[in-house]
Write a structure and sequence with these properties.
Helix content is about 30%, strand content about 35%. It is α+β, with helices and mostly antiparallel strands and about 120 residues long. It has one domain: Hypothetical protein apc22750. Chain B (Translation Initiation Factor IF3, 2-Layer Sandwich), CATH 3.30.110.70. It has a 3-stranded antiparallel β-sheet with strand order 2-5-4, covered by helices on one side. A two-stranded parallel sheet has the order 1-3. The longest helix is centred in the first third of the chain and has 18 residues. The N and C termini lie far apart (about 75 Å).
């Protein structure tokens, strides 16, 4: 027979662990052939597409993310002159929770979501 105090303690530990696991401090970079800007550029640019890219990461214990790597396929496909209004979100969905649960947190699974606008120069 399972002790109810043990079950309660386990549930509290699971809730606290899930809450603390979602807190993240990250270093975000954007090196690449196409400039990545977090806000509007000073030059006149023409918006031609808004993109949202999601990428799962595993076994990354540095919390350093290179945005140009996340959006590389879209950049090659669309050929923008710059990427502006960039928003980066690091989240954990149910799939990431299950992966971390089954690997006891060793996989360190997270999802990086990048929202950005692709622009071309008006010159």
């Amino acid at each position: 027979m399972i002790n109810s105090k043990l079950v309660t303690l386990f549930m509290i530990a699971l809730i606290i662990g899930g809450t603390l696991q979602s807190c993240t401090i990250a270093k975000i970079g954007g090196r690449g052939a196409v400039p990545v800007v977090l806000n509007q550029p000073t030059e006149k640019m023409k918006l031609f597409e808004h993109v949202t890219v999601k990428k799962n990461t595993f076994f990354d214990f540095t919390n350093s993310y290179e945005i140009s790597e996340v959006i590389a396929e879209k950049v090659v496909e669309k050929q923008p002159d710059a990427v502006i209004n960039t928003s980066i979100t690091i989240e954990q969905g149910f799939d990431n929770f299950l992966i971390n649960l089954f690997t006891l947190g060793l996989a360190n699974s997270k999802k990086i979501v990048v929202d950005a606008d692709f622009v071309r120069s008006t010159k």
